[in-house]
Amino acid sequence: MINPEHNQYLVSNYALPSLEIIKGKGSYLWDSTGSKFLDFTSGIAVTNIGHSNKHWVHSVTNQINELVHCSNLFSIPQQVKLAKRVEGKIGPGKMLFCNSGAEANEALIKFSRLVGKKVQTKNKFKLLVAENGFHGRTMGALSATSSPKYRNGFEPLLDGFSFAPLNDIDAFKRKMDHQTIAIMVESIQGEGGIRVATDEFLQGVEKLCRENDALLLLDEVQAGIGRTGEFLGFQNSGIKPDAIAIAKGLGGGFPIGALWIDEKWAEIFQPGSHGTTFGGSPLACSAANAVLDVLEDQNLISQAKEKGKQIKDELVNLKNKFPTLIKEIRGRGLMLAIAMKDSPNLLIEILQRKGLLVVGAAENVIRFLPPLTVNQIELKEALTITEDALQELLKIQK
């Protein structure tokens, strides 16, 4: 039951929700009527260690009792610890912390512009970005997002962005010009429909960047923090980016974003060139350090690869069983999708009624984004509900 004052006091930038969520534990959520749901949204790839994880709650509670905020005017030990740990999982470089994926991508764009002005003699400033991607709602990140769905009504956006189809290296070569300072892509397009960038494409993009003195920028906001079976989604491709945006799962539910910059460019930001009031606060970094603790202690990243293969195989079986409904199964690790032949909205409603929460995406896609802590019983429950829902949808369409 939704609070009748919801629309009275909240801006209508979201459709009116059908549930009022009040509690979460592990892989489950409860609404205000007491109904229980298996959560395969994970707050859109955020709660990678599940809801109300004991270690995470303990760490955050302890930090609240010590210090919540002091600003980046001072050194924050939790921030230094987190930077060292993340750098150790990516490679030599430095970290810049912020509050969200959009902010991380804004910093990514600003980084490229700084390099273009300070290092390149030709004052390069253009970014070449994959079509169908999504990088955030702020004006810079929105300018790097090609879909009219997100752009309409907010033009004119920032100048200097062009687009080419994901996995089409020849198209990227055609769009590359002497003013292009960087190519920016997601290893897996989340909002774009769980479109996976192939290893060959990523390798081709890296080669193209090196041949043209351009930067390789990766948006790992949704595909990062263990979700794909690697710490970041690109890490099995053999490439070395110049900078990476991360967020979402890093905080386990507490807002945090970050930019990793390769050691070659580590000094490009100087005092006054960029800043944030709340980014990298003691509380946010304690939450993120707790997430890394759980990922490491429970070996969740390698498990994500194994669980992902298991559930993907089962989803392929469902595709074969319901060929008139399902077009394709996409994704890697625990970032998976059912691409439907028609709108997935009714199926999403049926799944919710049966107790499974999922989230849609472009190209008639339903995303499966369970927590990395999901167990075998929960995976089986989700697959059973999905098959039942598909059976019901098939009867309705007949």
Helix/sheet category: alpha/beta
In percent, how much strand structure appears in the residues? 15-25%
Distance between the termini: 32 Å
**Helicity, in percent?**
25-40%
- How many domain units? 2
The CATH homologous superfamily of the largest domain: Type I PLP-dependent aspartate aminotransferase-like (Major domain)
Query: Main sheet: which strands, in order across?
Result: 4-12-11-10-7-5-6
Number of helices: 13
How is this structure best described in words?
The chain is of the alpha/beta class. It folds into two domains: 6-52 and 300-397, Aspartate Aminotransferase, domain 1 (Alpha-Beta Complex); 54-297, Type I PLP-dependent aspartate aminotransferase-like (Major domain) (Aspartate Aminotransferase, domain 2), CATH 3.40.640. 38% of the residues lie in helices and 19% in strands. It has 13 helices and 17 strands. Strands 4-12-11-10-7-5-6 form a seven-stranded mixed sheet, with helices on both faces. Strands 1-2-3-15 form a four-stranded mixed sheet. Strand 16 and strand 17 (365-368) form a beta hairpin. Helix 12 packs across helix 13. The radius of gyration is 21 Å and the shape is globular. The chain starts with 5 loop residues before the first helix and ends with a helix. The model has no long low-confidence stretch (mean pLDDT 96).
